[in-house]
């Protein structure tokens, strides 16, 4: 059995506050025997304070943007010093080696090694004004299994999770700063339509690919964004094993990767039963252009 956990917590621009919170959650995780802990998107330095036409952008200000961090910089090293032998996935704003380009990024690491990193591919609501987009979905071998990373809006695209599952991902960590709806927000955020979508995507992507899905999220508020929490662990059948709901904390679950895969993939195995010979329109450039035209119509 492997014990894994997803975090719902509030991370801001205050790096010292972030490190203290990471320390607290890491200690709690160790006390519960957690071996893999997934922090939210932008856990180091916080996310954008707003989205859309009035969002934080490089063009309008540098003061409100998350701090830009190098993968080999002191901020990541500080996290490694805190987590020690615990394997974690954590989000941050990555500064490219050119010293200018920013990415919404995540890494999976422990105190001794960075197993890999990921740059967010799909960008919602003007996020491309603050970050450049990534272009691949790598999968990494870690002490807890073969792990894939994705960030927030990526979960709305089945192709993202599917590409990692086909590359052997056993666990997909989905790190988010997912807010409630911007208009017609529900009085009870657990009933908000964006909360519903967040949870539905998590269950669907786990079931689509018959993988373990670990979804972290920011909680509380930051700027104009009101986060919906709902960190969770989902099994390959789409069943939620543990969740924080709206609150801050950790969703902790014990999983048996080999045994669960053997049982759930023994009959209907979605990856095996695919028909890629009839899926050409999904990536065909002409069809993509036609769909873009429909979206503008």
From TrEMBL:
It comes from the Bacteria. Pfam families: CN_hydrolase. Residues 2-257 form the CN hydrolase domain. The keyword Hydrolase applies. Keywords: Hydrolase. CDD domains: nitrilase. This is Amidohydrolase.
């Amino acid at each position: 059995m492997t014990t894994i956990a997803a975090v719902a917590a509030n991370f801001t621009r205050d790096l010292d506050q972030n490190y203290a919170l990471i320390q607290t959650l890491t200690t709690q995780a160790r006390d519960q025997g957690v071996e893999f802990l997934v922090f939210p998107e932008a856990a180091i330095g916080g996310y954008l304070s707003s989205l859309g036409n009035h969002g934080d952008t490089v063009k309008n200000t540098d003061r409100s943007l998350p701090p830009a961090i190098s993968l080999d910089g002191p901020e990541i090293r500080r996290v490694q010093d805190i987590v020690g032998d615990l394997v974690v996935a954590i989000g941050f704003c990555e500064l490219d080696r050119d010293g200018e380009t920013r990415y919404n990024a995540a890494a999976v690491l422990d105190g001794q090694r960075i197993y890999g990193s990921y740059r967010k591919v799909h960008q919602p609501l003007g996020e491309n004004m603050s970050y450049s987009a990534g272009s691949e979905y790598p999968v990494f071998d870690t002490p807890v299994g073969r792990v894939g990373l994705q960030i927030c809006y990526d979960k709305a695209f089945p192709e993202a999770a599917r590409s990692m599952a086909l590359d052997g991902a056993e666990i997909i960590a989905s790190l988010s700063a997912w807010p409630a709806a911007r208009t017609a927000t529900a009085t009870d955020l657990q009933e908000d339509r964006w909360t519903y979508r967040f949870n539905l995507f998590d269950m669907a992507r786990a079931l689509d690919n018959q993988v373990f899905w670990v979804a972290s999220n920011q909680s509380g508020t930051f700027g104009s964004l009101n986060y919906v929490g709902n960190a969770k662990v989902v099994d390959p059948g789409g069943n939620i094993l543990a969740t924080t709901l709206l609150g801050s904390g950790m969703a902790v679950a014990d999983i048996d990767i080999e045994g669960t895969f053997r049982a759930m993939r023994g009959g209907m195995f979605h990856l095996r039963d695919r028909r890629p010979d009839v899926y050409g329109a999904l990536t065909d450039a002409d069809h993509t252009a036609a769909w873009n035209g429909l979206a503008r119509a």
